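One thing: can you check what follows?
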Amino acid sequence: MEAKQEVKKRNVAIEFWRFFAAIAIVGFHIGWIIARSCNGSNGFWMTPTNTWFFGSSEVLLLFTITAGYFMVAHYKKLAKDPKYNERSALSRAGEYTWSRIKGLLPVLILGYVLGTIICTHFFYPNYGFKEICVMLVNSVWEFLGFHAAGLRSLGGEFFNLNGPLWFISAIFIIGYFIYWGLCKNEDVTSGFVAPFLTIFLAGWWSYTDTRAAQTAWSTFGSQLASFNGMGGSATSSTATLGFNNGLIFVALGMLIGVILYYLVAKLKEKEDKPSICLTVLNVLVTVLLGWYIIYQPTWFALERWPVAFLCIMVVGLSLLNKDGLTRLLNNDLTNKALGYLGGLSLYIYMLHYPLAILVLTILGKNTESTPYTFWQIYIPCIIITILVSVIVKMIMEKTLLKKK
């Protein structure tokens, strides 16, 4: 009688971080909505009750790094098939991109539809059915996943319907080109293009103090002191050669993920024993990153690149799976739960913004005389967002994502 093959347990430590980053980003956007929806000054922005999760504005990098890592893992798995390698790079990159679009575009569209209906009701209460229809038609390029390329609704920040969705369209666009590069020449893409562009883009961002934003534009060439890529719209005096910051941010993170895949694969070749040194290191970076995300203490302010380094470290150590903390997260009791929560993370990201505005709509406008605390908004918002995400995920798995 043949011995039963042992089923390899999935490493879900990284899913913990994806879920934590998602719910933290919800908190960050709630702080932004509270500040923006305040009548008069935006003094609630940095009050103690609203600085929770403010540091999460920098940890969206966690999603981009993991996207790049798992993209290479997907490529390496299929590249073992000789017939797959015989196909053109264009065909394989297109197939990969379509698989991503198929899984996310319906939720992307739902996010925009919710954003249109809820945002127009809250920020533009005089808008009727005709105006909403016009906004939906004008947003066709957003529905097709070109938001991050700059093809989006104009007319102010709230006209973007569901602003955070720039990140999803950027993953579609950048993912296609990197995957094409891997298919065309894996060695050149992973050994030269990825390291070179990572160094170049990271250096440029440091020089220009650029931030990840769907409305900002980084220019290569003349850089104006009054417009350094941190936000706003291009003007007649802005240099014309450049790229949308959303694309640059996602490209940088995914390229880091590509490099990280090969580094982790090399380290995994060594003896598979829990390392005390790696455990101490992971605990340290976890505490620092978690502390920064939740509190962002002003007396121990971290700049962007140390935070980026902490993100790279926690992703790398989680995927390496050779330290005690990672293996603790992978215990039998929490393995399935963390795997499921990680699978919810992108749904939470895509749906939270209009749902947060819906909560504010129900509670009433935040004003200086009647301010809401962070938790009054965050708790109902995160509960509603998770519940809606669970329902949407369930529907997607029973329809478009149903395994044959």
The CA atoms of residues 39 and 368 lie 7 Å apart. The chain has 14 helices and two strands.
